[in-house]
Amino acid sequence: MKFLSNITLKASAGFGFCLLASIISSNEKVYANTCETLFGENPSSINNPCYITPTTYKIRVYEMGLCTSDPLAGTYINDDDDVVTDNSISESSCTATFQSSTGSLVNLGGSSTQTLTGNNFRPPTGTYPHAYIKIKNTFGLKGSYQINNETFYTSSDGSPVQSEGSHSEFDEDLMDFSNGKTCSSSPELAGAEVFTTGVTGTMKAVLAQVSGGNLGTYAADSSCGSSTHLYGSFEPTTPVVISDQTQGLEVNFSITGRGMTVFPDGRGGMSGFGGGPFSPSFATF
User: Fold this and answer.
1) For residue 39, is it left (φ>0), alpha (ψ between -120 and 50) or beta?
2) How many whole angstroms separate alpha carbon 175 and alpha carbon 116?
3) If you average pLDDT over every residue of the chain, what do you get?
4) Distance in angstroms (rounded) separating the CA atoms of residues 270 and 165
5) DSSP H/E element including 37
6) Cβ count within 10 A of residue 12
7) Which among 148, 168, 181, 276 has most CB atoms closer than 10 A?
8) Over 55-87, what HEC string results?
9) pTM of the predicted model, to two decimals?
10) pLDDT value of position 29
11) DSSP β-bridge partners for residue 233
């Protein structure tokens, strides 16, 4: 990884500031690196990893906030389209808008109303070109994909099965952006993706360890296999502006055409399912 309908995740107001989070409908068309764009609907074969929309996408959120500069400035996509990272996180310009020491588990797929449980904080008045999120590096995933008129479903370990009765949610502990839950010979500890359709902007993330609890100090991992958390930053196309009159911030998360990765098997079929990125958008009120 270079990196459903009207779900509302609502956090109770704190300090007079309200944070709302909702999901953008899966009817929204997204094109970058989707399986449909690369191979069409129900392709006869696939030969590259691609994104689909999962039916289940669970994450545990510990903290979200806004920044005046990029906390992952040393992570970027170079001219060769490779992700480069200096394995550093700088939060000196960031302010938290939501925190939960135990984490709020939310499902970005489905259709039920959920509660984002934790504490909300009003950010200082200003313009914020960047946002950040701190989550557990374990994703709860479920989905399916069709190749050559055969439907493949996620099983309990993320491998594809053709029996709908075995269709299961699976947990993926992300350890390597290029290889998912296991470390490859050349692991990627950072991911980045530029979205030009749907929710637009640049999403970046680094695998991390934490000292001092889930709200403690996040340090980007420099070796594969020991990550416990994920630190993500997002640069929306339009900065978030907080004025003296701002009463709240609405955050929309999109997993449409990007929340799950389908991996090819080298023979035209697929070898398995994995996690994919999500992207947030923001609106003040």
Assistant:
1) alpha
2) 26
3) 86
4) 19
5) helix 35-39
6) 12
7) 276
8) CEEEEEEEEEEEECCCCCCCCEECCCCCEECCC
9) 0.86
10) 41
11) 132, 204
Strand arrangement of the beta sheet that strand 270-275 belongs to? 50-52, 260-264, 270-275
Question: What per-residue confidence (pLDDT) applies to 170?
Answer: 96
Structure tokens at 142: 């479920």
pLDDT the model gives residue 256? 85
Q: State the DSSP string of 118-150.
A: SEE-PPPSEEESEEEEEEESEEEEE-EEEETTE
CB 3 within 8 A of CB 194: no
Reported in sequence order, the residue ranges of 197-259 that DSSP labels E, i.e. its strands, are 201-211, 217-220, 229-236, 240-242, 248-254
Q: How far is residue 46 from each of residues 28, 33, 50, measured CA to CA in Å?
A: 23, 13, 9
Q: Give the chain's residues under pLDDT 70.
A: 1-32, 110-115
pLDDT tens digits, one per residue of 240-265: 999 999 888 878 778 888 899 999 99
**Radius of gyration for the chain, computed over Cα atoms and rounded to the nearest angstrom:** 18
Q: And the tokens for 285?
A: 């009120």
Secondary-structure breakdown of the chain: helix, strand, coil percentages, each rounded to the nearest 5 = 5, 50, 50
Edge-to-edge strand order for the sheet containing 248-254?
114-115, 8-10, 18-23, 248-254, 279-284
Q: Report the alpha-carbon distance of residue 104 to residue 61 in Å, rounded.
A: 5
Q: How far apart are CA 189 and CA 241, in angstroms?
A: 31
Query: For residue range 41-78, what is the model confidence (pLDDT) as tens digits?
Result: 999 999 999 999 999 999 999 999 999 999 999 999 99
